[in-house]
Specification:
This protein is mainly α. It is built from 23 helices and no strands. 76% of the residues lie in helices and 0% in strands. Helix 2 (39-58) packs parallel to helix 16, helix 5 (116-131) runs antiparallel to helix 6 (134-151) and helix 8 (178-187) runs parallel beside helix 19.
């Protein structure tokens, strides 16, 4: 073998990963919840630098190979960055236009604290199933539900866990979902065969999560009538509460049902919310602008931070927004995470580490367990669920074929591992995005995302039982 083509030894390939983990541990200990504001980005760049140095000095990997992979990876994630900016526009405009305040106003009066968690999870599951996008679901109805949960004095961590569990359940089973389509196509599995086979692990896992949310919710005493009155009075005195504002979520739902791309849906919804703000909330726009210029107020709503005084400190914090500017730390982190993943792929270190995992395969349970472990490992090291799905499928496709298993087993396991665990990794695109959108740190909501935590385990359990797992017919 040519020295230039030599694959890094697995122990060498572990060095950048260990360096990254050490730096992240130091950053978290130093900065805590502020670690995503710059410290984590430095940790990712340090891991990237170590990977490049080893590859170029020891294995003579040319620099242009890293450049090409970085360009490709950043190109693949460019739409994601635009979606994030649109999510920032939407969060600001839905709040200032009175959409979210109206949902909170009626929600705290209608929803029971005891059944809120399970209701929130089911609502997000339905919306995500219809839209095919966990991101869109969390950025719209998820944000509103978090506000209602805060008003009902339910822990943000529990609420975020319920929202994310429901959103990822629906995303996983939706034929409109990009990850579902990607997993089926990357493994050569028919889309609806893939979805039907996923239900064997996905539905039981979601039922378990709902039972946990139900039991946990029964312990919520909720807020008193006086506290509900304080919230509703503060909102009605500040905003023009009107059911007309809910036309925007309704029209957004129509766009989703017509399978309009997420980027267009989010941008269009933001524009509609801006029009509603001009009509129903001109006094709020003037407060945001600091003068009588409504256009200035609307522009700030889209791109900057807003803080409205309702006379209630807790409510003030609830309705504050960050706009597009609030997404910049997340975008910065995504760029660094993508660069780290790109150089790990270009250097061959990812492939070296995953081949070690493949070598452990001896039977069905170890095959599925190795696939699950690889999907989670790639989410940790590449920082993106799409890369994780594709690489996992590529690595194990031949192994599943040689052992006589149908491709649907591989496609389901990829989703049970790579898709749902991505939101649990603080430096993964999903983890970074959802923590920013909901305003809840990844490590805070992680223990309560029961669907996401149990899905990989359910995949292994079903493989161990052998339920509906058959070999290919020759």
């Amino acid at each position: 073998m040519n020295h230039r083509e030599k694959t890094p030894h697995p122990l060498v390939a572990l060095i950048p990963v260990v360096i990254l983990i050490v730096f992240l541990a130091v950053v978290i200990s130093l900065f805590g919840s502020e670690s995503l504001s710059g410290g984590s980005q430095i940790a990712l760049l340090m891991g990237m630098a170590v990977c490049v140095c080893i590859s170029m000095t020891v294995y003579r990997t040319p620099w242009h190979r890293f450049e090409q992979q970085i360009k490709k990876t950043l190109g693949d994630v460019s739409i994601t960055l635009l979606i994030l900016l649109c999510v920032g526009m939407l969060s600001g405009s839905w709040m200032i236009s009175g959409i979210v305040p109206t949902l909170i106003y009626y929600g705290v009066q209608i929803m029971s604290p005891q059944f809120f968690l399970v209701s929130a999870s089911v609502i997000c599951a339905i919306v995500s199933l219809l839209s095919g996008s966990s991101w869109t679901t969390i950025a719209t109805i998820g944000v509103a539900l978090l506000g209602i949960g805060n008003a009902l004095e339910i822990s943000e961590a529990w609420t975020a866990g319920a929202i994310i569990s429901g959103a990822y359940f629906g995303d996983k089973l939706s034929p409109l979902s990009d990850t579902t389509i990607l997993a089926s196509s990357a493994t050569g599995t028919d889309l609806f065969t893939h979805i039907r086979y996923m239900m064997l692990t996905t539905v039981p896992t979601f039922v378990i999560a709902l039972i946990i949310f139900m039991v946990a919710g029964l312990g919520n005493n909720g807020v008193t009538e006086l506290q509900v009155e304080q919230y509703t009075e503060g909102l009605s005195n500040t905003f023009h509460i009107s059911l007309w504002t809910l036309l925007v979520p309704l029209l957004t739902g129509v766009l989703i049902a017509r399978r309009v791309p997420s980027l267009i849906v989010l941008f269009s919804s933001s524009i509609m919310a801006g029009i509603v703000a001009l009509i129903l909330q001109p006094h709020i726009l003037c407060e945001v602008a600091g003068n009588e210029n409504l256009t200035r107020g609307l522009a700030i709503t889209y791109y900057g931070a807003t803080a409205i005084d309702t006379g209630n400190a807790a409510l003030n914090e609830l309705i504050s927004t960050g706009g597009m500017a609030g997404m910049l730390n997340t975008i910065w982190l995504i760029l660094c995470a993508m660069c780290f993943g790109a150089v790990m792929v270009a250097s061959g270190m990812i492939q070296s580490l995953t081949q070690v995992i493949v070598s452990w395969v001896r039977h069905r349970v170890s095959l599925v367990s190795s696939t699950v472990g690889t999907g989670i490992f790639l989410n940790l090291t590449t920082g993106d669920q799409f890369i994780s799905i594709v690489l996992t499928a590529d690595i194990f496709k031949e192994v599943y074929h040689n052992q006589g298993y149908e491709t649907r087993l591989l496609s389901r396991t990829c989703e049970d591992a790579a898709t749902v665990t991505s939101v649990l990794v603080p430096w993964n695109t999903c983890g970074m995005t959802q923590s920013t959108v909901l305003g809840v740190p990844t490590l805070t909501y992680l223990p309560y995302c029961f669907f996401n935590l149990f899905s990989p385990l359910m995949s292994i359990i079903v493989a161990a039982i052998g339920w509906r797992i058959v070999r290919k017919k020759e």
